[in-house]
């Protein structure tokens, strides 16, 4: 019988986060993942905002927590998600930043040109999949948008994903900039699926508007700060999705 490994992590933003599957436990325990503890989420932004000392590990765990919550809400609304799909989606969000190196985005823009954290992440995930004897097959399909249930990929990477929900709240918390605070709990409650795509119920429209405005304000106040190491990364990005 497989040993059941259960851990509880106390997160300063959400409170307790539960790890209750042996494969997820083993994934988080792997050196590839543990290295994220030493990589700042916001590169060198702590030189401007001294509290911004949080890491990619913190962010990935927070996004995992929101993913667990989102999947549970969708299942409660009758969206069919198998146990295998649920596990794969949770591992997908855990791995979404696995390729980041020292100084996060600053490594790709200001320190070494031509380095992509997406490419590095792909190499690491393929290697992890081999080490775990193919256990990440469905996870890789979801991350690379090859799986037929598109909403699973959209929860990981889209204009309204749990990645963005966590980093806006988390970066606001650690920088002390309140403009990025969003109603992530209500947004998750309003998520639904229609024709295989991730949607938001009509009554959640104001929470989505707040999300979009908060994201824009965080770019101008924090991510595009004149002394911030992240500004080059985002300088050409469309800040208003649509």
For the terminal residues, how far apart are their CA atoms?
49 Å
Total domains: 1
The CATH topology corresponds to Hypothetical protein af1432
Computed structural class: mainly alpha
Mean pLDDT: 88
- Helix percent reads 40-55%
CATH class: Mainly Alpha
* Beta strand %: 5-15%
Features:
mainly alpha; Hypothetical protein af1432; two-stranded antiparallel ribbon; two-stranded antiparallel sheet
Topology, please?
Blueprint: E1 7-11, E2 15-19, H1 22-29, H2 31-34, H3 56-76, H4 83-95, H5 105-111, H6 117-131, H7 137-143, H8 150-156, H9 162-175, H10 184-190, E3 191-194, E4 197-200, H11 205-223, H12 231-234
Antiparallel strand pairs: 1-2, 3-4
Helix pairs in contact: 3-4, 3-9, 4-7, 4-8, 9-11
Brief overview:
With 242 residues, this protein is mainly alpha-helical. It is built from 12 helices and 4 strands, in the order ββααααααααααββαα. It has one domain (7-234): Hypothetical protein af1432.
Descriptive report:
The chain has 242 residues and is mainly α. It has one domain (7-234): Hypothetical protein af1432 (Orthogonal Bundle), CATH 1.10.3210. It is 52% helix and 7% strand. It has twelve helices and four strands. It has helices at 22-29, 31-34, 56-76, 83-95, 105-111, 117-131, 137-143, 150-156, 162-175, 184-190, 205-223, 231-234; strands at 7-11, 15-19, 191-194, 197-200. The strands form two sheets. The protein has a two-stranded antiparallel ribbon with strand order 1-2. A two-stranded antiparallel sheet has the order 3-4. Strand 1 and strand 2 form a beta hairpin. Helix 3 (56-76) runs antiparallel to helix 4. The longest helix is centred in the N-terminal third of the chain and has 21 residues, at 56-76. The radius of gyration is 17 Å and the shape is globular. The N and C termini lie far apart (49 Å). Residues 229-242 have low confidence and may be disordered.
